[in-house]
Amino acid sequence: MAEPVGRKLVLLRHAKSAWPDVPDHERPLGQRGRRDAPVMGRWLRAANHVPDQVLCSTARRARETWQLTQSGLGTEPPVQFNRRVYQASAAQLLDLLSQASYPAKALLIVGHDPGLPELALMLAGTAPPEGGQAGSDATPDAAFDRMRAKFPTCAVAVLEFAGSWGRLRPGSARLTGFMTPRELG
After folding, report:
1. Helices (H), strands (E): how many in the chain?
2. Residues 178-181: contacts with CB within 8 Å, 24+ apart?
3. What is the pLDDT of residues 149-163, one digit of tens each?
4. Each residue of 6-52: pLDDT tens digit?
5. Which residue ranges make up each domain of the chain?
6. What separation in angstroms does the CA of 12 have from each of 64, 137, 176?
C-alpha cells in the first residue's frame, strides 16, 4: 500500500490595500502592502514553503500581492486567478479545494479576510496533536494562538496534511508555520 502523499497548503492574506474611491474588487495595494509582499515571498523561499501551484483571488489587491510575493519568491509557479476566492467563506474555500484535482504538493492561496483566516483555523483548530485529543485546546502551539488572535494583512499560515486535496477536512491539517511581515521586521 502506498504511503499518503504529504501536502502543504500555504495561505497568504493579501497585503495592505489602499482605499481610493473605487469598487472593492478594484482596490490596489497601498505603500505598506507593496513593501510587505516581496518580504513574504523571500520568507517563503527561505523557509522552504515554495508553492508548486497558486490559486489567487481576482481582486486587484490579491493579484498585486501575488505579483510582488512572486518577485521575492524567485520562481514562477503556475497561477490560476479564480473569482470564487474573492469574498469566499472558509467553507467555500474548502469546497473549492475539495472539488479540484491539483497536482501540486504545495499549493498557495492568495485570498481575503475573513475566509482565509477562518479556513486556517478550521483546518488546524480541531486537529489533535501527536498522541493528543481533539478539541479547541488541542493545539497549544504558540503559532496557532498568534494566528487565532490576529491574521493581519500579508500574513502567511502553513498547514500540512497527508492525502489528496479532496480529502482535506476540518481538523485534518497541522499548522506548521505562521508568519507576519511585522515579525520579519
Report:
1. 6, 6
2. 178/143, 178/144, 178/146, 178/147, 179/40, 179/43, 179/47, 179/155, 180/152, 180/154, 180/155, 180/156, 181/15, 181/36, 181/39, 181/40, 181/152, 181/154, 181/155
3. 999 999 999 999 998
4. 999 999 999 999 999 999 999 999 999 999 999 999 999 999 999 99
5. 6-184
6. 12, 25, 14
Counting every residue, how long is the chain? 185
- Residue with cell string 483555523: 121
The residues, ordered by sequence, that sit 6+ positions from 68 with a Cβ below 8 Å of its Cβ are 15, 29, 34, 37, 38, 41
6-184 maps to CATH 3.40.50.1240: yes
Reported pTM: 0.90
Strand pairing of 156-162 and 53-56?
A: unpaired
| Encoded amino acid at 72, one letter | G
Q: How far apart are alpha carbons 76 and 89 in whole angstroms?
A: 27
Q: What is the largest CA-CA distance in the chain?
A: 57
